[in-house]
Amino acid sequence: MENNNTQKEWSRRVLLIIGIWIGTSIISEARGQKLESTLLWKVEGDSIVTSYIFGTFHLLPQADFEMKEKVEQAFDASEQIVMELDMDNPAMQSELMQNAFMKDGQTLDKLLSEEDYQTLDVYMKETTGIGLVQVNRFKPFFVSAMLIPSLMEGTPASYEMTFVQRAMSREKEIFGLETATEQAGMFDNIPYETQAEELMKVVTEKKEMADLFEQMIKTYKKENIDRMYELILENMSDKNQEKFLLIDRNINWLPKIATFSMQKSTFYAVGAGHLGGDFGMIRLLKEAGYKVTPILN
To answer: Which of 1, 117, 206, 272 is most enclosed, with most CB atoms within 10 A?
Structure first.
């Protein structure tokens, strides 16, 4: 029973964090122009019911967590909630865990030098209470996700889990834009060796990683979504990651957003990194013909 509870906690933690490293080929006059600094946008159109899209920060210190009144009002005005994943689906956690393992028998002890493995093992035990042997088959990115709380001070908070709780208390249905299998599968596009190098940085470059994390939080609190996007791009180990971590997903989400909003007023909550940039959700929605209005206050 204890192992099952531990596994559920791992999967929940991964779900909360995925996307920090995260949260198309159309040309328009709007490309390159600065977007207004706000995390919340109203989406309107002849074929849809008025909806809202909000950029989240998947996991941040409780001291930096703020649910502004404009967000609460948009949430309450919406009939259904759509996030990256359907986080109240009881089958999602097991689905995520099924996709957490590396392929072809690869393991962390094969990817890391003996010295790095021992260093990481000690750090894992100190920060999570879990030894590397328990996650030896996990994709390195998933292990990195488990270590993110070690970069912050205080109790972590999550917009996604807050929205889940509020949706359940208000009897609003929750849906996902992609499945756990689809989301976890993205990281098979990044070589495990590259993921392992990034994983070790959490330990060997902890101060730099913590400083970057703090910078991202400050930018998020200013609601500067274009700068959030830039920070993510600047810190990708491979610039090709932009395509399958951000652009392709944004394109895939666009018709799903149209379908959900045809039926009911919908509150969309996705990582803030998906909103800004030339191929972010805000510009894609505008180019698809929707009226997308920034909600500043």
So the answer is: 272
Residue pair 37/224 in contact (Cβ under 8 Å)? The answer is: yes
Q: Which of 259, 260, 236, 262 is nearest to 247 (CA)?
A: 236
Question: Which tokens hold the place of 277?
Answer: 């940039």
Element (H, E) at 5: helix 2-17
Residue 255 burial class via C-beta count within 10 angstroms: exposed 0-12, middle 13-18, buried 19 and up:
exposed
Q: Which residues neighbour 113 within 8 Å (Cβ) at sequence distance 6 or greater?
A: none
Please tell me the distance from the alpha carbon of residue 127 to that of residue 209, in angstroms, as a whole number.
Answer: 15
- What is the sign, positive or negative, of the torsion defined by CA atoms of 154, 157, 211, 219? negative
CA–CA distance, 83 with 164 (Å, rounded to integer) = 9
Can you tell me the mean pLDDT for 230-240?
A: 82
Per-residue pLDDT of 32-80, as tens digits, reads 578 899 999 999 999 999 999 999 998 899 999 999 999 999 999 999 9
